[in-house]
Specification:
- Pfam families: HTH_18.
- One of its GO terms (molecular function) is sequence-specific DNA binding.
- Keywords: DNA-binding, Transcription, Transcription regulation.
- This protein is of the alpha+beta class and about 300 residues long.
- Helices cover about 45% and strands about 20% of the residues.
- The strands form three sheets. The protein has a six-stranded mixed beta sheet, covered by helices on one side. Strands 3-8-5-6 form a four-stranded antiparallel beta sheet, with no helix packed on it.
- A hairpin with a 2-residue loop joins β5 and β6.
- α4 runs antiparallel to α5.
- The longest helix is centred in the middle third of the chain and has 30 residues.
- The two termini are about 30 Å apart.
């Protein structure tokens, strides 16, 4: 495992991006690139090789490909295989070739340990920290940022910096998810804390009509204790957290599907369409229809 540690005091330089969907069996061609590329898998296993190292990416996995190294597919993927991809480099060109830009997992986890234990954000905040591979990417959050990026690509913005700033935000989101994963992993190793299991149970059931009472019953806690515990560790109420998950999925469906607002509300476990619309407006400061109209154009790559 290696990590890319890169300065983001100025935005990364966006090069290109797209959403690939295979219309037949597909294998990645062999090539060497002069920039960085990240692939985020959405559907079906993807078999990639960089130099002598082979990776099989499952849906929700990401892969960071480095400049100057040969990469290719080593096995065919099925029709319908789908992934996001984007190329980028840094405005400080020296950072591409400096050896200290690529650090080991031990160095990365030591830095993250300082963040978690000693309020180290002040010194670390100018950097993104991207692992060679990452499992369990929160695709809901990534999809929102990526569709906004694709929307910018198909729009006539007066400056190309818009895509660079948004891509920088996407890299920050990946870094934040990586930090959270390592923190949860560390907590699982050092304590019997049930928070990661609670969060995963909520995520799996987030499209149902669930509440604090359902979670407290599942984990055998009183509602009062669980409400205080969750607020202390997550900084928000459990109901707010559930709504955040539902609205992330709602945004994805508004961008990627032709479902009506009523159908989306039902798919998210809302029994009242009007309440869903009111909640969306309160949390996003826009209506579902306005959100769909704002991000209804995407750049699709099917080659």
């Amino acid at each position: 495992m290696y990590y890319l540690k890169a300065d983001i005091t100025s935005p990364v330089h966006f090069i290109s991006a797209g959403h690939f969907t295979a219309d037949a069996q597909w294998i990645h061609s062999e090539r060497i690139i002069t920039d960085y590329e990240i692939i985020i898998n959405l559907k079906n296993p993807i078999h990639m090789q960089q130099e002598d190292k082979k990776y099989t990416l499952q849906p929700g996995d990401s892969l960071l490909l480095l400049p100057g190294l040969t990469h290719k597919g080593f096995e065919y993927s099925d029709k319908g295989t789908s992934f996001y991809w984007f190329h980028f480099c840094f405005n400080n060109q020296d950072s591409i070739i400096k050896q200290d830009s690529i650090i080991s997992s031990e160095e990365a986890e030591a830095a993250i340990s300082l963040i978690n234990n000693n309020n180290f954000y002040g010194d670390f905040s100018p950097f993104c920290l991207l692992p060679s591979t990452m499992k369990g990417v929160n695709l809901d959050r990534i999809s929102i940022l990526f569709h906004q990026l694709l929307h910018l690509l198909s729009s006539s913005y007066y400056t190309g910096l818009a895509t660079s700033y948004l891509l920088t935000s996407l890299l920050i989101e990946l870094t934040e998810q990586n930090i959270l994963q390592l923190k949860i992993r560390h907590e699982n190793e050092t304590s019997s804390d049930k928070l990661p299991k609670i969060l995963e149970w909520i995520r799996v059931h987030s499209l149902q009509n669930i509440s604090l009472a359902d979670v407290s019953h599942e984990f055998n806690y009183s509602k009062e204790y669980l409400a205080r515990y969750f607020k202390k560790h997550m900084g928000m109420s459990m109901q707010q957290y559930i709504y955040n998950l539902k609205l992330s999925k709602a945004k994805e469906l508004l961008c990627e599907s032709d479902k009506t607002v009523k159908e989306i509300a039902e798919a998210l476990g809302f029994q009242d369409e009007k309440y869903f619309m009111k909640l969306f407006k309160r949390m996003e400061d826009t209506t579902p229809k306005q959100y769909r109209n704002a991000y209804n154009r995407t750049h699709m790559n099917i080659n």
